[in-house]
Design goal:
300 residues; alpha+beta; six-stranded antiparallel β-barrel; Thrombin, subunit H
Length: 300
């Protein structure tokens, strides 16, 4: 034990620091010279292959935690991106539905305006508030009343044809009786040949009856019935209905039916027609006394 205690290390504290530095530099130079030799490089490869598993084992925990962190962040980003895309898809779908509704409304309004241009009458657009179609009453309530100039008896149409006529009016609303109401009758004529008759409501929204047409009348399935203008309620020329299938011979006369052309149970906009009923000025007769010329009298 005493001998071991007196053993000195190679570089004891009493050794010169300059000698230590010189030995380290010499060893470095020798190692650099040896490293440049091709034989030493060939020997390094097997040692590197032996040490590589150890190096990978040492770095494995760090790589593992790095991959877990990347996976967590990627999963969170993908989840948020997926949620954002779902929200955008929902918004786009809602906008698409709105665009489809606007497109249909545009088509309906174009039909109404086209009908207005064709007939040339003064019209007012009204929206239905409620529609009541039962066997004993076919009625629709619109959101325009007397404050807008609506009066009982005015005709109501849509973009396809006649819907009915105004029955009752309040300040803000009006009740419109449809042409299919059992108590309603409308003078019509066949557009093809001018044959006049009366179409009477049946209580069903898809059917009118023509009780005053004889079985021998010149009527064909598909003939268009238009308002004849008789009675002064409905202006002439408005489409009303089309003739359905002709009844068989054993059913007898007066069993003809017609299908309304207006969309009575699906309307979203209606036109209240106000025709100009003011009388035309009478053409003066030659025998009538001529009015005096005011300018010539003043000149005299």
């Amino acid at each position: 034990m005493r001998a071991l205690s007196h053993t000195k290390p190679p570089f004891a504290s009493g050794s010169s620091l300059h000698l230590k530095l010189a030995l380290c530099l010499a060893a470095s130079l020798v190692l650099l010279a040896i490293d440049h030799r091709e034989a030493v490089r060939m020997l390094r490869l097997p040692f590197a292959m032996i040490v590589e598993p150890v190096r990978q084992m040492v770095h494995a925990p760090a790589h593992f935690f790095e991959k877990v962190s990347e996976f967590g962040s990627s999963h969170s980003e993908l989840a948020s991106e997926n949620q954002r895309l779902k929200e955008e898809a929902l918004l786009l779908k809602g906008k698409q539905l709105k665009f489809e509704a606007l497109e249909q409304e545009n088509i309906r309004l174009r039909g109404l305006l086209d009908s207005t241009f064709k007939v040339g009458d003064q019209v007012l657009i009204a929206e239905p508030l409620s529609i009541n179609i039962v066997p004993y009453e076919n009625l629709v309530v619109v959101n325009k009343g007397s404050r807008y100039g609506i009066q009982p008896g005015q005709a109501v149409v849509d973009g396809n044809g006649v819907v009915g006529q105004v029955l009752r009016v309040t300040t803000h609303h009006a009740d419109v009786v449809m042409i299919t109401d059992p108590s309603h009758a409308i003078p019509v004529q066949i557009n093809r040949n001018g044959l006049r008759t009366i179409a009477v409501g049946t209580g069903a929204a898809d059917r009118l009856k023509l009780p005053y047409l004889a079985g021998s009348a010149d009527v064909r399935p598909g003939d268009l019935l238009v308002t004849s203008g008789l009675g002064g309620v409905f202006p002439a020329g408005y489409p009303v209905a089309r003739i359905g299938a002709q009844p068989s011979e054993n059913q007898g006369a007066g069993r003809l039916e017609a299908i309304p052309v207006a969309q009575l149970d699906r309307n979203r906009e209606l036109l209240v027609v106000r025709t100009d009923s003011s009388p035309l000025p009478r053409i003066p007769d030659k025998s009538d006394p001529q009015p005096a010329n005011t300018l010539s009298d003043a000149a005299r």
